[in-house]
Write a structure and sequence with these properties.
single chain, mainly beta, 7-stranded mixed beta sheet, 4-stranded antiparallel beta sheet, 11 strands, 0% helix
Length: 118
């Protein structure tokens, strides 16, 4: 599984960005997909995840109500819509795939940088 993120950039606090992650794999619709982030000097942290079939979602408390994860299985793509951005959202955002239900272990994108200015 190969993952390629896009959509990062510089935005002012209160603004919005949408990240995209294009995935390879013929059975993408069955993958659990996730977004994680890593700020400078901090550990990588979970942001959001979405199941394949049914599309149930889960969010970190820090982004609930502001971020929305979604997927388009026809395009093998998962999205992260980020609204009401805060400077503390500044990080490199990574897409991850869990094809086998064993957790986000082996399949990660290269990351896309998001910078939120105050």
């Amino acid at each position: 599984v190969q993952l390629v993120e896009s959509g990062g950039g510089l935005v002012q606090a209160g603004g919005s960005l949408r990240l995209s992650c294009a995935a390879s794999g013929r059975t993408f619709s069955t993958y659990v997909m996730g977004w994680f982030r890593q700020a400078l000097g901090k550990e990588r942290e979970f942001v959001a995840a979405i199941r394949g079939r049914g599309g149930s979602t889960h969010y970190a408390d820090s982004v609930k109500g502001r971020f929305t994860i979604s997927r388009d299985n026809a395009k093998n793509t998962v999205y992260l819509q980020m609204n009401s951005l805060k400077p503390e959202d500044t990080a490199v955002y990574y897409c991850a795939a869990d094809p086998y239900g064993s957790g986000f272990e082996d399949y990660w994108g290269q990351g896309t940088k998001v910078t939120v200015s105050s």
